[in-house]
UniProtKB/TrEMBL annotation:
Pathway: Amino-acid metabolism; lysine degradation; Amino-acid metabolism; tryptophan metabolism. This is glutaryl-CoA dehydrogenase (ETF). Residues 33-145 form the Acyl-CoA dehydrogenase/oxidase N-terminal domain. Belongs to the acyl-CoA dehydrogenase family. Residues 252-394 form the Acyl-CoA dehydrogenase/oxidase C-terminal domain. It holds the Pfam family Acyl-CoA_dh_N. Keywords: FAD, Flavoprotein, Oxidoreductase, Transit peptide. Its cofactor is FAD. It comes from Flavobacterium endophyticum. Its EC number is 1.3.8.6.
């Protein structure tokens, strides 16, 4: 291998040039409209130009690269399917998915920021908010002037969010919010948080909490080995006075946050394909160049088995996700169908990352290549937005009618 080690280069130049070529084994481009391809290609070029050269350095530093926020807004990653009157891109569900795929091809942490902003903050304000709330927040979120976060998970309630203890009391002219959320993406620097809390009757509602409200703090969670280029933190509410106009009025109950998760999980199903494509493409190129025993390792049956299985799994995931996108565009996709795609595609991606890492041998563990970063990122992606197990139980419930959660 003509390995040109780059130890002498500054940190932000250590990753190799981005030579990504997207696999399309079943000519799925033929199923896409010109608009889909245009949106996807713009996102792909932007990731190559703005994300790939810097992301390894930010992941190593465990820091979110805030300078890419404007670019994310420009490629339509903040509210791809939110109507243009609210500042969104007004695109369909396939375009939304393709944008998530391309961003996660760069890094799952960057895609997480875009997913949270679009599906967990803009979506509930658009769907469950009133017109004043939409006009106040959505254009600023779409442009990246505001960054949002979504507080559902609590220290003692992860897979079972319905058990949450965060609550608010009606104090006449305001609500008094108390409790704590943890594992919240974007929390350390978010301007607003969509927070799920119980009222005095135990019913769950969404509240918009703004940075600067007294008693509201967002300590950062450190020492993550995964999603290092995404900021994660807690949301602490200590007698926070929330104005009454900040309650999302149009939907309550656990179905409200779960509706947001449907939209985010759908984006993750596409995003995971991006991470898998990057690992496959890197491993294929490496295997063709790396000579051992006087021939490229790509010419060995063992490595061909790995690569052939990768492209097969990517192709299956692409078909599954494209069909799910069509169903979403027609308003027919069920939550259980979305669970199946999220679960399948993230599992597919993490397995491909592990195999691809091995194809690169020792080089696979370095930050010169993206594979190890993808692999570690996917450990979060397989856990958040419903764990691998929980999505299986959702499919189990859907096909048997019997919940096996308890
Ligand atoms: C990096 C990162 C970012 C995140 N971002 C956000 C965010 O922005 N907003 C937010 O609200 N949350 C966020 N989360 C939280 C995430 O959604 C939760 O971690 C996830 O839902 C799992 O909850 P838990 O970690 O408490 O695990 P637990 O619920 O304690 O689960 C532990 C294990 O038990 C299994 N398990 C649980 N219940 C059952 C059952 N009934 N049957 C069988 N097995 C079961 C699970 O599958 C898992 O393997 C984030 C998490 C991470 C790691």
């Amino acid at each position: 291998m003509k390995a040109i080690l780059t130890q002498s280069l500054p940190n932000d130049k250590k990753m190799r040039p981005d030579l990504f070529q997207a696999p399309d084994y079943y000519l799925l481009d033929e199923l896409l409209s010109d608009e889909h391809k245009m949106v996807r290609d713009a996102a792909r070029e932007w990731v190559k130009r703005e994300v790939s050269p810097i992301i390894e350095d930010y992941a190593q530093k465990a820091e979110f690269p805030k300078q890419i926020i404007n670019g994310l807004a420009e490629i339509g990653a903040f509210g791809p399917y939110i109507p243009e009157e609210y500042g969104g891109a007004g695109l369909d569900q396939i375009s939304y998915g393709l944008i998530m795929q391309e961003i996660e091809r760069g890094d799952s942490g960057v895609r997480s920021t875009a997913s949270v902003q679009s599906s967990l903050v803009m979506y509930p304000i658009w769907k469950y908010g009133n017109e004043e709330q939409r006009m106040k927040y959505l254009p600023k979120l779409a442009s990246g002037e505001f960054i949002g976060c979504f507080g559902l998970t609590e220290p003692d309630h992860g897979s079972n969010p319905g058990g949450m203890v965060t609550n608010f009391k009606d104090k006449g002219d305001h609500y008094l919010l108390n409790g704590a959320k943890m594992w919240i993406s974007n929390a350390p620097f978010a301007d607003i948080a969509v927070v799920w809390a119980k009222d005095e009757t135990g019913r769950i509602h969404g509240l918009i909490v703004e940075r600067g409200m007294e008693g509201f703090t967002t300590p950062e969670t450190h020492n993550k080995w995964s999603l290092r280029a995404s900021a994660t933190g807690e949301l602490i509410f200590d007698n926070v006075k929330v104005p009454k106009e900040n309650l999302l009025p149009n939907k309550s109950g656990l179905g409200a946050p779960l509706g947001c998760l449907d939209s985010a999980r759908y984006g993750i199903a596409w995003g995971a394909i991006g991470a898998a494509m990057d690992c496959y493409d890197t491993a294929l190129r490496y295997a063709k160049e790396r000579i051992q025993f006087d021939k490229p390792i790509a010419g060995t049956q063992l490595q061909q088995k790995k690569l052939a299985e990768m492209i097969t799994e990517i192709t299956k995931a692409q078909l599954l996700t494209w069909r799910l996108g069509v169903l979403r565009n027609e308003g027919k996709a069920t939550s259980a169908q979305i669970s199946m795609a999220k679960r399948n595609n993230v599992d597919m991606a993490i397995n491909i990352a592990r195999e691809a890492r091995q194809i690169l041998g020792g080089m696979g563990i370095t930050g010169e290549y993206s594979i190890m970063r993808h692999m570690m990122n996917l450990e979060s992606v397989i856990t958040y937005e419903g764990t691998h197990d929980i999505h299986l139980l959702i499919t189990g419930l859907d096909i048997t009618g019997i919940p096996a959660f308890k």
